[in-house]
Amino acid sequence: MLIDPFGRKIEYLRISVTDKCNFRCIYCFTHKNWKWLPHHEILRLEEIEEVVKVGAKLGVKRVRITGGEPLVRKNIESLVERIASISGIEDLSLTTNGYFLEELGEKLKKAGLKRINLSLDTLNPEKFYKITGVDGFSKVKRGLELALDLGFSPVKVNVVVIRGFNDEEVLDLAKLTLEKPIEVRFIEFMPIGGNSLWDKSHIVDTQEIKKTLETYRPLLPADSVGGGPAKVFRWEGAKGKIGLISPISEHFCHRCNRFRITADGRLRPCLFSDYEINLKTALREKKVSLEELFLQALKVKPEGHRLNSTLKPMRAIGG
């Protein structure tokens, strides 16, 4: 069992399978000269499987596959099948921009994927293009509908709220929950990877978002699946739920239950710290055990973050 010096049980791994992405979102793709990792620097599928097996032996129960955009990784459904078959893994989910769900959704479901988080920051096709750099709103919307049709449960929709960009759409996005069994999750804008767009004037905190939502209808407390940091609510009579995630205005470090694995095989104890432990070298040189490195990460996991802007962009860390 992985219990850190502050009594937090670590049972959740977020694993980035690639730093590549077909979108260029304004809050993520900020390094103009960023170069993708060469293929040999990225963990192989069997290496990711080995990391998860060790994690599971130590008490990890939940795994989320992230990127970059994980669906650009070749044979991603094979990785899903490998992880889904590991003893001790009770929940396997994936975060995606949704663009390739039409092509891969059914394969992922058959392979054993249980849940999907889909990023969708606007319901306006023109604004979608401005935010992502891709004319893909209709395709992503079809991917969302397919995820629901295939029975992924729950389907969560992640919305990064940025003042002056999409904050006026909060109510419209939340209203998706009236007719669809989804959880729309509003996330405060975070200082990741030296983002030149980020400053405090662009933050819309979750208290402001909550007040906006309550102008339509009172919010009732609700439960959520997945053990994440969201405070979850629902409107009476709605088929879905609403989540509020507040890394800026209300730190949830005391409830942190996760480690992150970057695409190049670094174990990252905290999203907002650039301290990392090299698992890839251990995997390939066999000079130190992965179990030892997990325990090392446990010892250095900080009690809380300081919200310093990290050097790596989110696509390199794994969200």
TrEMBL record:
GO terms for molecular function: 4 iron, 4 sulfur cluster binding; cyclic pyranopterin monophosphate synthase activity; GTP 3',8'-cyclase activity; GTP binding; metal ion binding; S-adenosyl-L-methionine binding. [4Fe-4S] cluster 2 binds at C253, C256, C270. GTP binds at R14, R64, T95, K156, R258, F259, R260. [4Fe-4S] cluster 1 binds at C21, C25, C28. The keyword S-adenosyl-L-methionine applies. Its EC number is 4.1.99.22. It catalyses: GTP + AH2 + S-adenosyl-L-methionine = (8S)-3',8-cyclo-7,8-dihydroguanosine 5'-triphosphate + 5'-deoxyadenosine + L-methionine + A + H(+). S-adenosyl-L-methionine binds at Y27, G68, S119, M190. SUPFAM superfamilies: Radical SAM enzymes. It holds the Pfam family Radical_SAM. Keywords: 4Fe-4S, GTP-binding, Iron, Iron-sulfur, Lyase, Metal-binding, Molybdenum cofactor biosynthesis, Nucleotide-binding, S-adenosyl-L-methionine. One of its GO terms (biological process) is Mo-molybdopterin cofactor biosynthetic process. Its cofactor is [4Fe-4S] cluster. It comes from the Bacteria. The keyword Transcription regulation does not apply. Residues 5-229 form the Radical SAM core domain. Binds 2 [4Fe-4S] clusters. Binds 1 [4Fe-4S] cluster coordinated with 3 cysteines and an exchangeable S-adenosyl-L-methionine and 1 [4Fe-4S] cluster coordinated with 3 cysteines and the GTP-derived substrate. Belongs to the radical SAM superfamily. MoaA family. Catalyzes the cyclization of GTP to (8S)-3',8-cyclo-7,8-dihydroguanosine 5'-triphosphate. Monomer and homodimer. This is GTP 3',8-cyclase. It comes from Thermodesulfobacterium commune. The lineage of its organism: Bacteria, Pseudomonadati, Thermodesulfobacteriota, Thermodesulfobacteria, Thermodesulfobacteriales. The gene is moaA.
